[in-house]
Structure formats: structure tokens, C-alpha cells
């Protein structure tokens, strides 16, 4: 649903000095006389009337005694004036930042329930800023480059950092709501052995079990739909020294990609530092660390010796794939994906052995 916004926003501000000048005119009092009555200098009175100086609490009290008008009246005028000026400046800044908003996938974010849709562009920008938890686009510019970003991009995909950061922000929000034990490397390593057996299960079973096992070891696992112009399949980063996050998008919708991505991200957690963001699906990645994470995922999913014997046989029909998958205790789809990746099996073959996924909103 689109929210209508018809709030009146004046593009002017009435200065307290203007009110003061009118009051003096009504009373027939000169600025020099007011200066004498308040003990303020004539120059200060001129500055107040011309809105070059603000009315302080001390000045408000002096005006109260000289004019019989409560100090709170003058302070309220000053407060309202300063707020009006701030809003005028804010409106101008929002106008300048609308170009940034066009690169944020607002429609999809609203469809997913992350933000509220509005028919006013500036109000929509404010809503998006609230989602990011920042005051202005300047803060987004400060935060995004400050991340030590490591990500892989396929050349035929156009990536918008604004969209990628929105996807990451949603994962951060969901992960922050998950209760996790302090990170325990040994416990997480132990959990991975149990998680491997979940590859044969349906998502309604494996998702909560996966999240529970990882949370007990200090890792929040969140599933967040990919946004347009992101091209991401997964991400790993540390929310704190004791809490890591693995974020998955189900980009390719099949179990081979999902589980390889998960174990790849798990490899980053176990093998690499806590200050980096690994964003799978885009560019700029550390080739060595990516190779290490890939190797970790392959070894976790497919025992090297048994895989080598299976490949040597050269028989990759459905029956042999299913039998091998059952023997090593993983989903047949993972075996199919591995063989396709190594070009031992055509991309069009045996895809019905893969488990496919869909989001609830689709």
C-alpha cells in the first residue's frame, strides 16, 4: 500500500526578531530605549531585530522584564524559528539527494515489507534513511566506503552499491534480532558436521535447525531475498567480536548453490579475519582467500578420496549420482552441481535431482 503524504511544509521561517520589531513599533518604543531597559547594547538589539543573533535564555528573561512578555514566549519563538530553518535546509538537502534514492530498489523493499511506500519522493527518501539508520546520504557515503569490501561480480551484471547495502542492512537488522551465544570456533566447526546432513532435508526442516546450530556457536544465519542490481548470493561479516553473520539470498534457487555458498561463507569465518566483509557474487575479492573458502566448502561437502574414485569411474547417470550421494550422506543436487562445475556433466543434465527453492512472497 502506498502512503499519501499531504503534510504542509512552509518554505519560510518567521524570526523572533521580526516579532520583536513589530512589538516595538506597536509600543512606539525605539531600539535604543529597549537597549537601555534591558541592559543590552544597541548593537545587540539591532542584531536581534535583524535575526542575526539568537534569543538566549538570558536575553529572554531581560525581554520579559522590559516588555512584560514571558521569557518562555520568546524562547518558543526562537525554538520554532530554528526548527523551521533546519527543516528548510533539510528540504534543500533532500532535494539534492533524490538522485541517490533512484538507485535504491524502493519498490522491491516495500514489497518485501522492509519499508513503507509513499507517493512523496522526499518522504520516501526519509523512510529509506530510517531503514539504513542514518541521518542523511552523507552518512551512507561515509559508511559504505569504510567497509573493507571483498566481493565478486560477474561482468554481465550491473551492480548498484545502494542496492547491495540495502540487502546487507536487512541482514544486519534480522541478525541483530537473533539471540546467539558468544562465538566459539570449535563449536562452530562441530556444528558444520551436523549441518552437512541437513542438505538432504526440506527447507521447512533445515532452516530452523541450521539457524539453531549456528546461533549456539555465535553465528547468525539469515535468509534475505536478493534485490535488483545486487547480484549477490551470500555474505559474511562480523557484527561484533563475538557474533558473526552468514547472509544467504538463494540467488540461484537450487540446493547445490545454496549449500556451497553456506559452507564457503563458513570457511571465511573459520579461516579469515573479523574486519572484512566477504560478499559473494560481485568483484574485488581476495583471490587467495576465495580459493581457500572454495576449497573448504568442497572438502566439507564432498570427501576428496571418495569423490576422486567416483569421478574416475566416469559414470554420471542419475542412478549412480543418487547412489554416490547417499553413500557420502549429501543431497544428489550437490553432486550434480559439482560435476557440472567441473564440466563433467552438461548443465542441462540431471537438474531434476536438485532441490529448488522459492520465497514466500513469490
TrEMBL record:
Residue intervals of the HTH cro/C1-type domain: 27-74
Report the domain of life of the source organism. Answer: Bacteria
Q: Which InterPro entries match?
A: Cro/C1-type_HTH, IrrE_HExxH, Lambda_DNA-bd_dom_sf, Toxin_antidote_HigA
Q: Is-annotated flag, keyword Nucleotidyltransferase?
A: no
Molecular function via GO: DNA binding
The entry's keywords: DNA-binding
Q: Which family does it belong to?
A: Belongs to the short-chain fatty acyl-CoA assimilation regulator (ScfR) family.
Q: Which NCBIfam families match?
A: antidote_HigA
The record's section on PANTHER family has: ANTITOXIN HIGA-1
Kindly provide the name given to this protein in its UniProt entry.
Answer: Addiction module antidote protein, HigA family
